[in-house]
Write a structure and sequence with these properties.
Blueprint: E1 10-15, E2 21-22, E3 37-41, H1 48-52, E4 83-86, H2 88-94, E5 99-103, H3 113-127, E6 131-135, H4 139-151, E7 154-160, H5 165-173, E8 177-181, H6 185-197, E9 204-206, H7 212-217, H8 220-229, E10 237-241, H9 246-260, E11 270-276, H10 281-288, H11 313-323, E12 327-330, H12 332-346, H13 352-366, E13 376-380, H14 405-412
Parallel strand pairs: 5-13, 6-7, 6-9, 7-8, 10-11, 10-13, 11-12
Antiparallel strand pairs: 1-2, 1-3, 4-5
Bound molecules: pyridoxal-5'-phosphate and zinc ion.
Zinc ion binds next to loops.
């Protein structure tokens, strides 16, 4: 079968487990071994100069993604190129020498999910899907709703009904259909798999199911941006939140591609994975020395990370072990403290997932697994305004007074 040139440098899908190759298509599981499929490429000659002269969004890396060359001219949200904040104040408090926060709250719908959805939209266009769908822990639903609106597609997204209010609103405001399901994310996800097999849903592009190989590639852009923003250098250490584990595995893939293409110098880097204790199946397996991840029932304020049966969990374990990293988890109380610490030191208001990453960073420093002298990047993948409840009891006015000098002096006399 002739390959479509609309997928840019992507030439095939390849099974992550057994390596069997398939044509580029709306498939996600290997028919030989049921392993997950990944996009395989034949890259052209991509130089730093090509990338640097590209648009200030993820399309500057289009030569490394499964998208057409003219992707930047199509109607999409143009996510990415978010700030890499040099976090000297926070580094000082933590006793670290060189610390950066990659702040993905700066994306169009205020989470890193805009990156992955942008790639899935291009795949949906190529395959002729007119409805975009997903199972979501919240942020993905909003990203799909907005991206579908911009691209002129219909959307129908599925979430656990007990999500944060802001995420419900963001996922509905763009005019697509939002369906709340009485159940956990894992139950929503199972339902979506059934829906894909049914004629009701078989014409739909589920960004994280039948478009998952393409969707997942969007996370590589985090690796590319971090390296480019550091002056074409991979950091020594990186701390990444884990829900399904897709983002973490693709950041590793992105770093490896940069090395293979000679865009950065070859170096060793260590990847650390962060979970909330209330949903820590990968961390539990890591600590027990297991290769298999036992599913759990989530109970944590970090709802965007509340996936009890993470599809890429075993790969996260592999990568943490192979690179000399680790997997760690923190309690809800530690998450809230970390959200406030990041806000107080750097003026960055993270959602609970960002609190998980910083909390885990602190814990890894305490137990000696993270080197305080090595160049470190931590991710904030979402926006604090979406998880206000986590801090609203503690972040209050210093006083409420009448508008008079006397009242102010009385309240703040010292
Ligand atoms: C979805 C999400 C993640 C993790 O994504 P996975 O690729 O499923 O591990 C991290 N942070 C936020 C804010 C998210 O919404
Ligand atoms: Zn296979």
């Amino acid at each position: 079968m002739a390959l479509s040139t609309d997928f840019g440098p992507a030439t095939a899908l390849s099974c992550r487990e057994c390596g069997t190759r398939f044509d580029v298509g709306p498939n996600f599981a290997c028919i030989e071994c049921f392993g997950p499929l990944e996009v395989a490429y034949e890259f052209g000659n991509v130089t730093r100069a090509d990338i640097e002269s590209g648009p200030t969004n993820i399309w500057r890396y289009r030569g490394l993604l499964p998208v057409p060359d003219d992707v930047a001219t199509k109607p999409n949200l143009q996510p990415g190129w978010t700030k890499l904040v040099k976090a000297d104040n926070l580094a000082g408090e933590l006793g670290m020498r060189s610390l950066y926060v990659k702040d993905d709250s700066g994306n169009p719908t205020h989470s890193f999910k805009d990156r992955v959805v942008a790639i899935a939209v291009e795949a949906a266009r190529n395959f002729g899907f007119s409805t975009l769908s997903c199972s979501s822990t919240g942020n993905l639903a909003g990203a799909v709703g907005a991206a579908a609106a911009r691209a002129g597609l219909d959307s129908c997204v599925f979430v656990p009904a007990n999500l944060e209010e802001a995420k419900i609103v963001v996922a509905s405001v763009y005019g697509g259909r939002l369906v709340g399901i009485d159940g956990t994310y894992d139950e929503v996800n199972r339902f979506c798999s059934e829906l894909i097999g049914d004629e009701l849903g078989e014409k739909w592009g589920f960004v994280n199911v039948n478009l998952r190989p393409y969707y997942a590639e969007g996370s590589k852009t985090l690796a590319y941006e971090i390296a480019e923003q550091l002056g074409w250098r991979i950091p020594d250490q990186i701390v990444i939140p884990v829900a399904s584990g897709s983002q973490l595995t693709k950041i590793d893939k992105g770093f490896k591609e940069l090395i293979r293409l000679g865009l950065v110098e070859e170096k060793e880097y260590r990847i650390f994975a962060a979970q909330a204790t209330g949903c820590a199946p990968v961390s539990a397996a890591y600590k027990a020395g297991h290769d298999v991840v036992q599913p759990v029932r989530p109970d944590t304020i970090a709802k965007s990370l509340a996936i009890g049966n993470p599809a890429d969990g075993p790969y996260v374990l592999d990568i943490a072990r192979r690179t000399g990293g680790a997997v760690e988890d923190v309690s809800d109380r530690e998450i809230v403290a970390a959200v406030r610490l990041l806000a107080r030191t750097e003026g960055v208001f993270a959602e609970t997932a960002g609190g998980v990453v910083l909390g885990v960073t602190q814990k890894l420093l305490e137990n000696g697994k993270l080197d305080p002298d090595a160049e470190t990047v931590i991710l904030n993948t979402g926006e604090g305004l979406k998880t206000l409840d986590a801090v609203s009891a503690e972040a209050r006015p210093a006083a409420v007074i009448r508008p008079s000098l006397d009242a102010f002096r009385t309240a703040f006399a010292n």
